Amino acid sequence: MKKQIILGLLCLSSLLPVQVVFPSSTIAANKSSWEEVAAKETRKLYPLSQVLFSQKVWDKSKKDISIKQYRLTLREGMEDFAVYTTITYDSNSGKIKNVQVLPGI
Question: Which first-to-last residue range defines the signal peptide (predicted)?
Fold first, then answer.
């Protein structure tokens, strides 16, 4: 009886579709590293603040230069506020050329 149940389950499992899962760390590694750069550069201007949330607003790539902008929500004391951090970097090498941090409206 046990053999029949096991054989039945094996037959059914062979009919189920196979799902391939890629590790998310390899896909999201680049994304998270640019978010970390934005948070690090923002903390230089606001050293007493805590980063609550970060979100990519937009990005643009050309031949040699790429630009990414992030909106970071910060908390300093009891006050929450937003800043926009724009990172300009070399598309080929990944070397940062310019970082601009502007207070949100």
Answer: 1-28
Strand order in the sheet with 79-90: 50-61, 65-76, 79-90, 96-103
Length of the chain: 105
46's CB contacts (< 8 A; 6+ apart) are 74, 76, 83
Decide if 86 contacts 60 (C-beta within 8 A).
no
Residue 24 banded pLDDT, cuts 50, 70, 90: very low
| Domains of the chain with CATH codes | 49-105 (3.10.450.390)
For the segment 53-92, what is each residue's pLDDT rounded down to a tens digit? 999 999 999 889 999 999 999 999 999 999 999 999 998 8
Alpha-carbon torsion angle 76, 78, 84, 88, nearest 10: 20
Two tokens, residue 23? 């590790």
